[in-house]
Design goal:
The chain is α+β, with helices and mostly antiparallel strands. Helices cover 34% and strands 22% of the residues.
Length: 486
């Protein structure tokens, strides 16, 4: 009798790529009850024997939570009763074709391997799949595959190291789901009924929703908006000194930065005009580095995509998950920004040495050995997000910074120059900028006549309204929401 194994991934794209990797492209495709979730069949030596593999998928969470029918009608129960009301778990209508596929396929299988994502949600989705399958075949042997990227090496390790579901992780998701349901529904009903009665002309047909993450996040937006509205600009004054020499223009910044009293600034300015000779108090030169980015976790990916590419978090994760399921990057939902010592970065870099655009850079990087920055976070489940078909472990950009301090009529000013000595990661990372700024050579105790001395004014400005990247950072800082669901 041929051993049959039912394999279930979290999405159809992942199922297809997993089947492609494990079968080396030799699989047969057939239809399930869901037109979006195909079935892929192939042969594989696994579990110590030759098996017929049946690979299919769900579309995220297969089951949902809701209150029983008695609590559906808002008028039949007070909002407070929802904190203790009976709830049920069920398969929504749109996912019932997937459920039927699983029930049909599991009948002829002896083993079930769960290939869902390796985060908390993935563990709970795997538990939902197991629940559906064991309702039909209670004695089926269940295995959990753990992997961080869809590559031959990673999938091979997963097949040889099959384990068990982590019930505690799945239970944590169940608790979060129930808390979200009870709090969200109770407060949504409470404030909708109360506010629609108080403001019927404005809110009579409105649902005023409440969410445990939504509400405090909205609070950040409102708080910043109120700060901007309440801001009163103040006029300030400062002195600016410029010097042109050797075809270079140098702006010297006032050490006081600025003052808010016009008369005080005017007196100091006039003193500088009466005795305009500038004396060099000192010069200093020191190495300067522009740090390369830290290894990428999910929150930083969303922030950087928002800031540098103007892509919102939802679209960023959609694209990242597509790249993951197609084998281009590792698992994109991770809290880790430290590569483990055992991680073989050299192998990733080596694959790029033949590329016409960055192959030369990859060769240089390989020669000195990839040494990525070390962050300070790990979820002990997945490595930082990294390309499985690109490079990693770049070097900081290096430069030499020169600071010149001068004195004019007792007032001190300073200027800085920068010479970039090694661009390093900037050569292949166009999203960061670091501009050189040359200044003439100044000698301590030497004097010169400034080209201009000006008194300028300006106004203080309010803080900017929050952008999406700012909100993501605040949510992470205050521990609001699941990082995988931002």
């Amino acid at each position: 009798m041929v051993c049959k194994v039912l394999n279930v991934a979290e999405k159809n794209d992942a199922a297809r790529e997993l089947a492609k990797v494990m079968s080396r492209g030799r699989f047969q495709r057939r239809e399930g009850f869901s037109k979006f979730n195909k079935i892929y069949e192939f042969d594989l030596h696994i579990l110590g024997r030759d098996c017929r593999m049946v690979m299919t998928s769900v579309s995220g969470h297969l089951l949902s939570l809701d209150f029983i029918l008695a609590y559906k009608n808002w008028k039949n129960c007070a909002p407070g009763t929802l904190f203790t009301a009976e709830i049920r778990k069920f398969c929504p209508e749109q996912f019932q074709p997937i459920q039927r596929t699983l029930e049909r396929e599991v009948r002829g299988c002896q083993h079930l391997i769960l290939w869902t994502d390796g985060d908390r949600e993935g563990e709970n989705i795997a538990e939902e799949i197991r629940h559906v399958c064991t309702q039909v075949k209670p004695r089926i042997q269940v295995h959990r595959a753990r992997f961080s990227e869809i590559t031959a090496q990673s999938i091979s390790r997963a097949c040889s190291g099959l384990g068990m579901l982590d019930e505690r992780v799945s239970d944590a998701v169940k608790v979060r789901q129930e808390v979200d349901l009870r709090i969200g529904c109770a407060f949504t009903r409470f404030q909708t009924m109360r506010l629609t009665r108080a403001f019927p002309s404005v809110l009579s047909d409105q649902l005023i929703s409440y969410g445990p993450c939504q509400f405090p996040t909205l609070g950040f937006v409102v708080e910043r908006y109120k700060q901007v509205q309440a801001f009163i600009p103040e006029t300030f004054f400062k002195i600016k000194v410029t010097h042109e020499a050797d075809n270079e223009k140098v702006d010297f910044n006032w050490k006081r930065l600025r003052v808010f009293n016009h008369t005080v600034c005017l007196i100091l300015y006039q003193m500088c005009l009466r005795n305009p000779t500038a004396r060099v108090l000192g010069t200093a030169s020191r190495p300067k580095s522009k740090w390369r980015p830290l290894p990428l976790d999910t929150v930083e990916l969303e922030k950087q995509a928002s800031r540098k590419m103007r892509i919102n978090a939802k679209e960023t994760m959609r694209v990242a998950e597509k790249l993951y399921t197609q084998g281009y990057i590792s698992y994109p939902r991770t809290e880790t920004n430290i590569f483990p010592d055992s991680f073989d970065l050299s192998a990733i870099v080596r694959d790029q040495t033949g590329d016409p655009n960055w192959g030369g850079f990859a060769t240089q990087l390989l020669a000195r050995g990839p040494t990525p920055r070390r962050g300070n976070k790990t979820d002990n489940a997945h490595p930082p997000i990294h390309p499985t078909k690109y490079t990693s472990g770049l070097q900081d950009a290096q430069g030499q910074e020169t600071t010149v301090e001068i004195e004019v009529a007792g007032e001190k000013f300073s200027a800085q120059g920068l010479m970039i000595t090694a661009r390093n990661y900037l050569d292949v990372f166009p999203y960061d900028r670091w501009s050189a700024k040359t200044i003439p050579v100044y000698h301590q105790n030497s004097t010169f006549q400034p080209t201009s001395i000006e008194m300028v004014d300006g106004e203080t400005t309010p803080p900017s309204l929050l952008h999406e990247a700012d909100l993501i950072a605040l949510m992470e800082k205050h521990g609001i929401g699941e990082w995988s669901m931002v």
